[in-house]
Amino acid sequence: MNAHAAVDAPLLRHDRDGVATLTLNRPGARNALSEALLDALGTELDRIAADGTVRAVVLSAAGPVFSAGHDLKEMTARRADEDRGRAYFAEVLSRCSGVMQRIVGLPQPVVAAVEGVATAAGCQLVASCDLAVAGEDARFCTPGVHIGLFCSTPMVALSRNLSPKHAMEMLLLGEMIPPADAARMGLVNRVVPRGGALEEASRLASLIAAKSALTLRTGKRAFYEQLEMGLSDAYEHASRVMVENMLARDAEEGIGAFMEKREPSWEGR
User: Fold this and answer.
1) Which whole-number Å values give the CA distances from 195 to 136, 147, 178, in the listed order?
2) Residues 48-62 pLDDT 10s
3) HSE (CB half, 13 Å, CA atoms) of 78?
4) N or C: the chain end with fewer CB closer than 10 Å?
5) Is the pTM of this model over 0.85?
6) Who contacts 183 (Cβ-Cβ below 8 Å, separation ≥6)?
7) CB-count burial class (<10 Å; 0-12, 13-18, 19+) for 219
8) Phi, psi angles (nearest 5°) of residue 139
9) Spatial distance between the Cα atoms of 263 and 100, rounded to a whole number of angstroms
10) What's the CA gap between 110 and 92, in Å, rounded?
11) Which of 77, 76, 61 is nearest to 123 (CA)?
C-alpha cells in the first residue's frame, strides 16, 4: 500500500513490479461510487498516468460486491435543493463520466477484477476497463429501468463493448447477467473460479507490464481513436501510427531481438 493511501480511504493503491492495483474500499456501502470515491479514483488515475514506473493497472474491490453504482443516498438527499437536485445530478454524472474517460485515456492498460455484483455505474466501470476478469460469483446488471431511471451513462460504455442488441438487452430488461453470459456478450474476457479474479487479473497485468511501455501507450490510444472513425479513416490513422511505431527505438529493438532469438531490452522510446 502506498503511503498516501490510508486503510480507511475510499480507494487503496498497491504497486508491485510495474503493476498498480487500485481497490475500491467502501465495502460497507457496496462500493458505491460516492463523490469521495470518484474524486479519489480520478486523482489516482492522474497520478498513474504521469508515473513512468507503472505499465499496467488492476482495478479491484474490497468486500463481496464490486460496485453497486452511484451512491443513491447521496444523490437522493439533494432532491431537497431549490432546483430539486438538477445542478448536483449534472455535476456528479459529469464527474463520473470524467473518471470513465480517464480510464479509457490512461496510457496504461487497465484490467478489472470482478467478484460479486457490478451494477449500473459499477457495470459501466467494468466496461470502461480495457480487459475484465470475472469470478464465477460475479453478476452484471444495468437495473435502472426497474426504478424509472434508464442507465443512459452506463449505456455509453456498454455500447462500446457489446453488440447493440446485447447492450439493449441489458439496458431494457435490467436482468442480472451471469459471468458466462457476460463473456459471451463481450463484457468480460475470462471467467475464473470464485475468488480468483484478482489473481488472474494480476497475472494478465504482469504479462502486459513486461511489454514496451511505448508500445502499450501507442497501441491503446490508437485502438480507441480508430473505433470512433469510419473504415477508411481508421486504416489511414492506424497506418500513420504504425509508421511512427516502426521508427521507435523499442520497435527496432524488439524486431532485432526476435530475429536474433533473444529477449528484448525495452527503454520506452
Assistant:
1) 8, 31, 15
2) 999 999 999 999 999
3) 14
4) C
5) yes
6) 134, 189, 190, 191
7) middle
8) -140, 145
9) 35
10) 23
11) 61
Domains of the chain plus CATH, in order, are: 11-209 (3.90.226.10), 213-259 (1.10.12)
Count the Cβ atoms, other than its own, within 10 Å of residue 115: 24
β-strand pairing of 110-114 with 117-119: unpaired
- Half-sphere exposure at residue 69, Cβ-oriented, CA atoms within 13 angstroms: 20
- Which residues fall within 8 angstroms of residue 85, CB to CB, at 6 or more apart? 75, 78, 79
Residue 256 CB-density burial (10 A; 0-12 exposed, 13-18 middle, 19+ buried): exposed
Mean pLDDT estimate for the chain: 94
**What is the share, in percent, of the chain residues with pLDDT greater than 90?**
90
Q: What is the residue type of 127? A: A
Q: Which amino acid is at 160?
A: R
pLDDT class for 1, splitting at 50, 70, 90? very low
Kind of pairing between the strands at 19-24 and 11-16: antiparallel
d(CA 227, CA 208): 21
- CA nearest 128: which of 145, 146, 111? 111
Q: Determine which helix (DSSP H) or strand (DSSP E) holds 45, and give its type and residue range.
A: helix 35-49
Can you tell me the distance from the alpha carbon of 22 to that of 195, in angstroms, rounded to the nearest whole number? Answer: 17
Task: Give the DSSP H or E segment for 114.
Answer: strand 110-114
**Which is nearest to 212 in space by CA: 171, 248, 256?**
248
Instruction: Kindly report the number of other CB atoms within 10 A of residue 202's CB atom.
Output: 21
Residue 6 — pLDDT band, cuts 50, 70, 90?
A: low
